Amino acid sequence: MFEVKSKSFKTELYRKSIHLSSLWMPFIILLANKNWNILLFFTLFVGNFIIEYMTFKKLPYVSIIFRKLFIKTLRYKEIDRISFVPSGSVFVLAAALIVSVCFTPKAGAAALTVMLIADTVAALVGKSIGKFHFNNGKTFEGTLAFFISSVLVILSFYPHITPLTVLITAVFAAATEFFEKNIGIDDNLMIPLVTGFILNLI
């Protein structure tokens, strides 16, 4: 049986399990009324943003409770921050809101699922078996895992589109994740936007 020995891998595993718990969002986008989805994600986004900002300002009780609940899911830049930096959950909710507004339900749900699943697979593969590292800290194995996962997710939503369309969409999604630092925008937001834009053209 595979034994997790790396502390950093265990931390990433915990983070990504929280990441995958957001898979309810694509189902809601697919099945629920669009206006209801927009109201839901807007409310969650604003509420999450306010709580995190209150935590940053170290307001009593809010800061303590938030850190106890989510300290394991936060990256270093989100914990010891001089200026306010929203956590990944804020960007996930922002992405869910934007894809609900801008794209068809199918494209929005597929784009969000690509981000949630492919990003998780890439991180876990890169942390566990990644050997070939790029200058930006990404691994070849993780990037390849992201691409393959993206292809499978897209095909699950669009089984009848052409292979070329699937490959182009997956390449752009993987490139968005790979060049996250160059783009300067959190990949939890950019991956769904780029993927959804392409899928929405179908």
Spell out the key features of this protein.
202 residues; mainly alpha; 11 helices; disordered N terminus
Q: Mean pLDDT, as a whole number?
A: 84
In percent, how helical is the residue content?
A: over 70%
Tell me the β content: under 5%
Summarize the helix and strand pattern as letters: HHHHHHHHHHH
Q: What's the shape? A: globular
Regions with little confidence, pLDDT below 50 for 5+ residues: 1-5
Number of strands: 0
Largest sheet at a glance?
A: none
Taking all Cα atoms into account, the compactness measure Rg is: 17 Å
What is the number of domains? 1
What distance separates the N and C termini?
A: 43 Å
The structural class is: mainly alpha
Walkthrough of the structure:
- The protein is an all-alpha fold and 202 residues long.
- The chain has one domain (7-200).
- The protein has helices at residues 7-20, 24-31, 34-56, 62-70, 76-79, 88-102, 105-129, 140-157, 163-178, 180-183, 187-200.
- The longest helix has 25 residues, at 105-129.
Q: What layout of secondary structure does this protein have?
A:
Layout: H1 7-20, H2 24-31, H3 34-56, H4 62-70, H5 76-79, H6 88-102, H7 105-129, H8 140-157, H9 163-178, H10 180-183, H11 187-200
Helix pairs in contact: 1-7, 2-7, 3-4, 3-6, 6-7, 6-11, 7-8, 7-11, 8-9, 9-11
